[in-house]
Amino acid sequence: MLIMKIIGCILVIVSSTGMGFFFSNEMRCRINDLKELKKMIGLLRGDIRYANTPLPEAISSITRRHNGNYNAFFTHVSSKLNELSGHTFSEIWKAAVQKELAGTSLSKKDKLHLIQFGDNLGYLDKDMQMNTIDLFISQLEDEIKELSKTIKEKSYLYNTLGIMAGLFIIIIMI
What we know:
This protein has 174 residues and is an all-alpha fold. The chain contains 6 helices and no strands. The protein is elongated. The protein starts with a helix and ends with a helix.
């Protein structure tokens, strides 16, 4: 019976520690996802601003030039825009965010900002699109900067809380 308790305690500590490390890693992945999103939106801005490319063609161009976490997202948006199904850009963008970005480390707040960005992007002229893109990029930069400031402390906190939660559960079990 004692061996079963010891094995149970070890499993509890390992699993709770794993949870702490998982949440710590999710925060790092979120920063990387935001950086990649910023890069993709920057490519979109360059295509629209310097090549005078219309929005649907600029999105298609991005899907051909870049492979990454957001390739499926931009491919989905591009294919839906090319279908000419009668849906607005905003509806297509929102559906793609909800469907294609479910597997990323983006938070609900990040996805909401991305949906709002799509709402403002699809129906404006070139100058307003540039202003919208610039605003969104600056919001991404602020979010990345804020997360980068606190990642070390929060990672340590998540890891420590995982270990301490395991120890607390073991104490309660014994």
